[in-house]
């Protein structure tokens, strides 16, 4: 047993929680629906324990559960989805960049909390009358730096080489992955002769899918192409400016504690060549200073992989069976009736399986373990090696595959929306079989744990969850945050509680912030941004965004602080909590530039920022040391297989 595990075992003993009503049998749960109606006004709405958020369709329709109720609805959760969709509005580009102290705070920001909440996601997807799919929008990084009970807000676009080119010409130039329409002059010929026959599937780099501060590096992540950012200002430095932005990796990574107590960041690439039906996987490890210290490459049969689990001795990928929809290439794609991501579909001819790669030593022995449960999975919770040497793998499972995300692009809760569940797999490393256990049937996604326990036995997880679902499988939108807990050797939850942010509000991806000096795994805070579809103080047509801070040990009590941000922040994709205080108020160099810009503008602010303490800076484009890789048609299509990381 490593020192880290022994430490975990000692820390775990004091953990407490309420007792859950589940009986632990897959597909069954006891309990009752608890109304999700949330109060408004000055008081923070209380958390509600939602043990079994199931309600017959007709009752859900009449209740509008969670957003006011009493309205006649055409489909379950229709009103909730209309409110939810307002979180995907396109913002007006560089003029929307903003910075300033967060002055509207309800409650109190914990004085001992220090670090920065970082979020990335598409923010602008309309240019010159051309509308792209939300997920193809230009990435905008949002930061909230917290220290001494105060918070500083910034948002800034990721200036990829394509962003700068399109900004200069004020029109879209590059085709994207999730948009059927093509901005190129002759799209039919471009797709038929350029993409299919020529095999040139270059797509726009929008830098929109994650942001990570590791070592001295701050990086906005696009598929295969991270961009280094200035940690003081969020300005784009460019691809290849540091080790973390040089390695070609997806936007999912794990930070782990080594047996000697040092920390590592593990990133990976999963690239598929469909011509040879081979996946090329690369696992990178970066030390605490951000230097690459390990790189291992493997090839294996083609598959869909989105996220990874890292344990003390293994990298583990969940291989979900997919295939190319070849007829759609010629009947839809070349006619702009489908986008690239729609060309990947379910392959029901084989079972999903786990691929277990050695992390240490000279072994190249990759083991595979088929799962006894049909599902797909994008985002994994955590995993560890148990006392018997088997691997525990916790994840959010989907009952079907989609890379189009219709309910994100145009949500209604019905079309193409998979049924999500919280699942545990135990991989028997002798028999090489993976057995499934249903932990919760509350629709869930975007899981997080304490990073101190990545790859180690752990007890607590935090998730984005739906408030309701119908018996025939229709989910409400992701609206709430949940805490779920289970003992290490048990395959059922002993605690599951859901906090609903309020009327017409929708929580985004949560993060865990450990309390300095804390000893228990859940001694810290859960932080997240919350979209408000009806903000009283809005800079964007009724929309608003809050940051909430919840004491993880007192999850049922709801936030200790709500920070109303000066600007609406679209839902976005992924982000992280940095224990470092970055992107705080302007330092001397930035202040000097701000003053110079002001002087050129008669002392007036340069752009939007009514709530900001300082005007925005429109940075000049950064030189990008980038060579755009040309992929073949099928290789290019499979670039999707790891995207939206
Ligand atoms: Fe992802």
UniProtKB/TrEMBL annotation:
Pfam families: RPE65 (PF03055). It catalyses: all-trans-zeaxanthin + 2 O2 = 4,9-dimethyldodeca-2,4,6,8,10-pentaenedial + 2 (3R)-hydroxy-beta-ionone. GO terms for molecular function: carotenoid dioxygenase activity; metal ion binding. Its cofactor is Fe(2+). Binds 1 Fe(2+) ion per subunit. Keywords: Iron, Metal-binding, Oxidoreductase. One of its GO terms (biological process) is carotene catabolic process. Its EC number is 1.14.99.n4. Residues 1-49 are annotated as: Disordered. It comes from the Eukaryota. Fe cation binds at residues 252, 306, 379, 574. Belongs to the carotenoid oxygenase family. This is carotenoid 9,10-dioxygenase. It comes from Ostreococcus tauri (Marine green alga). The lineage of its organism: Eukaryota, Viridiplantae, Chlorophyta, Mamiellophyceae, Mamiellales.
């Amino acid at each position: 047993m490593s020192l880290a595990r022994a430490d975990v075992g000692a820390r775990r003993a004091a953990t407490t929680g309420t007792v859950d009503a589940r009986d632990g049998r897959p597909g069954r749960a006891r309990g009752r629906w608890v109304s999700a109606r949330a109060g408004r006004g000055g008081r923070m709405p209380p958390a509600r324990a939602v043990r079994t958020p199931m309600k017959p369709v007709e009752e859900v329709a009449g209740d509008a559960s969670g957003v006011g109720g009493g309205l006649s609805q055409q489909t379950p959760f229709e009103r909730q989805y209309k409110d939810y969709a307002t979180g995907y509005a396109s913002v007006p580009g560089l003029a929307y960049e903003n910075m300033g102290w967060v002055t509207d705070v309800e409650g109190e920001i914990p004085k001992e909390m220090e670090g920065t909440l970082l979020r990335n996601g598409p923010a602008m997807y309309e240019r010159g009358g051309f509308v792209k799919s939300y997920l193809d929008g230009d990435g905008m990084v949002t930061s909230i730096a917290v220290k001494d009970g105060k918070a500083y807000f910034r948002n800034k676009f990721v200036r990829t080489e394509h962003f700068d080119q399109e900004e200069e010409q004020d029109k879209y130039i590059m085709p994207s992955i999730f948009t059927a329409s093509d901005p190129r002059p002759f799209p039919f010929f471009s797709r038929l002769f350029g993409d299919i026959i020529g095999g040139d599937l270059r797509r726009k780099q929008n830098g929109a899918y994650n942001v990570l501060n590791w070592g001295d590096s701050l990086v906005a992540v696009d598929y295969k192409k991270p961009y280094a950012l200035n940690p003081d200002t969020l300005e784009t430095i460019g691809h290849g400016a540091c080790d973390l932005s040089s390695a070609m990796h997806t936007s999912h990574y794990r930070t782990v504690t080594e047996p000697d107590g040092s920390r590592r960041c593990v990133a990976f690439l999963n690239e598929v060549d469909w011509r040879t039906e081979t996946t090329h996987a690369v696992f990178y490890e970066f030390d605490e200073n951000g230097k690459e210290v390990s790189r291992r490459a493997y090839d294996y049969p083609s598959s869909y992989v989105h996220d990874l689990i890292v344990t003390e001795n293994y990298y583990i990928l969940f291989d979900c069976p997919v295939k190319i929809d070849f007829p759609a290439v010629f009947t839809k794609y070349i006619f702009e009736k489908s986008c690239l991501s729609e060309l990947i579909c379910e392959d029901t001819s084989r079972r999903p399986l786990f691929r277990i790669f050695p992390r240490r030593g000279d072994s190249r022995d990759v083991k595979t373990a088929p799962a006894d449960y049909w599902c797909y999975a994008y985002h994994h919770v955590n995993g560890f090696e148990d006392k018997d040497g088997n691997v525990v793998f916790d994840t959010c499972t989907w009952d079907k595959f989609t890379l189009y995300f219709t309910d994100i692009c145009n949500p209604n809760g019905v079309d193409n929306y998979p049924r999500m569940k919280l699942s545990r797999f135990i991989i028997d490393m002798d028999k090489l079989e993976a057995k499934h256990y249903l932990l919760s049937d509350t629709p869930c996604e975007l899981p997080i744990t304490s990073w101190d326990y990545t790859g180690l036995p752990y007890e607590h997880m935090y998730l984005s969850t739906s408030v309701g679902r119908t018996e025939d499988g229709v989910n409400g939108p992701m609206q709430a945050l949940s805490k779920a807990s289970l003992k290490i050797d048990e395959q059922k939850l002993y605690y599951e509680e859901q906090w609903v942010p309020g009327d017409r509000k929708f929580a985004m991806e949560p993060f865990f912030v450990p309390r300095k000096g804390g000893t228990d795994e859940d001694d810290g805070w859960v932080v997240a941004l919350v979209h408000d579809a009806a903000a009283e103080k809005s800079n964007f047509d009724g929309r608003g965004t809050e940051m909430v801070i919840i004491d993880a040990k007192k999850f049922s009590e709801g936030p200790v602080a709500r920070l109303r941000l000066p600007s609406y922040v679209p839902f976005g994709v992924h982000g992280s909590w940095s224990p470092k205080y970055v992107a705080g108020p302007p330092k001397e160099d930035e202040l000097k530039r701000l003053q110079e810009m002001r002087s050129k503008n008669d002392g007036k602010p340069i752009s939007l920022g009514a709530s900001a303490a300082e005007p925005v800076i429109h940075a000049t484009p950064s030189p990008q040391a980038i060579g755009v890789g040309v992929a073949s048609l099928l290789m290019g299509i499979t670039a999707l297989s790891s995207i939206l990381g």
